[in-house]
Amino acid sequence: MCCxxxxxxxxxxxxxxxxxxxxxxxxxxxxxxxxxxVSDGARIPNPEWRPYVVNVSKSAFKKGHVPEKENYSLSNGxxxxxxxxxxxxxxxxxxxxxxxSNPVALIRQKSKFVQKRQSHTQVRRxxxxxxxxxxxxxxxxxxxxxxxxxxxxxMLSALYSMxxxxxxxxxxxxxxxxxxxFHKDQDGLWWFTTVGKGNKExxxxxxxxxxxxxxxxxxxxxxxxxxxxxxDSPLFPVHRGKGPLSNTTHIRxxxxxxxxxxxxxxxxxxxxxxxxxxxxxxVHWLRHTGISDDxxxxxxxxxxxxxxxxxxxxxDKYIDIELKERHKSAKKKLI
Length: 335
Prior knowledge:
335 residues
């Protein structure tokens, strides 16, 4: 351990980061297979796994572009995560008195690897035109084929209106959404209980519009208008067989079908440029969109608690009023 303490200095870590930025091509993969596989009951290393992966954006993939090893680059976020992990390890060594300094702190202080931003990153969300087209597409699809898409419409409503993550929509070993997760308190107010990041349970205030979406969904299923406290049936049942939706990949595919429908409509509309930017949208954008729209009209603290943010600082990232005002004051400057 003394040898470790003397040899692993700041320049060693910087050299490691440089290696991660330009690894050997044989270390780079074009997909993300699992690191281990099970063979004959034993857990063994997967020969297809690679420590580094190159990919293309969702919109580029739709246009026919494929990942190539020559285009590999280490993102700013990946470098930050790497430094955080190494720093955490050094903090452990400090506590155990195996070392008496954390070289990562020096790298972070004047880092040539991590780009620093003047303000928070712009939130990835749908524009008002894109969201309206998306929800209209979902309603149209549900009316044309209710068996396939009534669930899709309710799913989009929940993702947007209650800021749900995809993991909060799907069933897992620890939790699964059921009908009685919608419940009314003694004041007649409706709430939805979910279990989110860090296995933390939270209650979300249910709007009248979301309540109407629930009523429509239950009517289609042939159930009573509102769930009883004993109704523990799946909120999102599978179409074939019994039980809840548990495959997040399947949920993404369901939402993507609606995205594709909306993109086609936008491409033929007066706003074809909206179709181009929407090609990069993911399921998580719906959560961002719901929060961004609500923080304009609801108290920040209310949105924070419904979204399950650890602090108001996270919710503040969705407030872009100052950006708009700054741009407004600069728009008519003369040269």
